[in-house]
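Memo subject: From amino acid sequence to discrete backbone structure tokens
Keywords: amino acid chain, backbone geometry, structure tokens, three-dimensional fold.
Body of memo: The sequence and its backbone structure tokens, given next.
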Amino acid sequence: MGAVSQEAIWELKALMDRGFLYFALWAVDELLKRTFENVHQGYLTETLVRFLKAREGNVAKAHKMLLDCLNWRIQNEIDNILAKPIIPTDLYRSVRDSQLIGLSGYSREGLPVFAVGLGLSTFDKASVHYYVQSHIQINEYRDRVILPAASKKHGRPITTCLKILDMTGLKFSALNQIKLLTLISTVDDLNYPEKTNTYYIANAPYIFSACWKVVKPLLQERTRRKVKVLSGSGRQELLEIMDEASLPHFIKREGSGSGSSRFSGQGNENCFSLDHPFHWDLYNYMKEQSLIREPVAPVKQGSFHVSVPDPRPEGTEIAKTIESEFQKIENSNGLSQSINGMKINGGD
């Protein structure tokens, strides 16, 4: 949908105000207010607009979505998740080496640029709970630290980011990751709606292009408009919206033939690496928060379990479609290889 009407924003705000007044009678409003403050970070209107957009401007549905989000945060102690670092550090490093994401810089408009190595992420070094915990922690750090700092620097609300998804290395084995990626996507769709301004798809192989043709019609129009498939690495297109310094390492190395190796480049250049300043700042921030909340008791090892809401029907349909399309391509390749094999054997 386009711009949200002012009337819808006022109506949603009125519903939230009445809700807080009602909950005050039951002495439970403090938790709701605190978690709501962590959601909007002082940018109330922009937050209401995000939830309205996510529900196509329907005030009642946006109100329910927002309340569901707040209750999810309370039930899962999301406000405390930045005080729950994944320890020991070696375990966290394993998570970072297999769940490739990082902050590469900022656009010229001041939006944070997050790079995601979707093609080479393996998600095979820890349990699902650690990956979900890590993803939510990055979301919360983005929303509570990165975006407020960017807003202060530029003197205006900056409440969204850009994402560059690197598809280098995408293989049929990605089928094993669909369930986890669906969980993460569900968390974002229901609790962090409209936080990404644009998704840039870089280094897309044939397997992605084939799936995209099938999946694209299943997406809502507002989502389709956000996705831009770049030509190759898209270096020149990306330089139109950000400086060279903010390009992810796998874009900077265009033409080097090194692809998007999770281990290539220096730590301070590879935004996926735990040695990158963004990840060290995040990890140190979490350790500091853990000491503030639990100054005496040591932080215990163990993942922070978060309940994930059931995916929306369209999300399940998209996941099944991707899986089906991957299978078709794999079967087609298998048949092609068998035919080529017969030709080779017949010629001997």
Summary: Confidence is low (pLDDT under 50) at residues 255-265, 335-348. The CA atoms of residues 186 and 309 lie 7 Å apart.
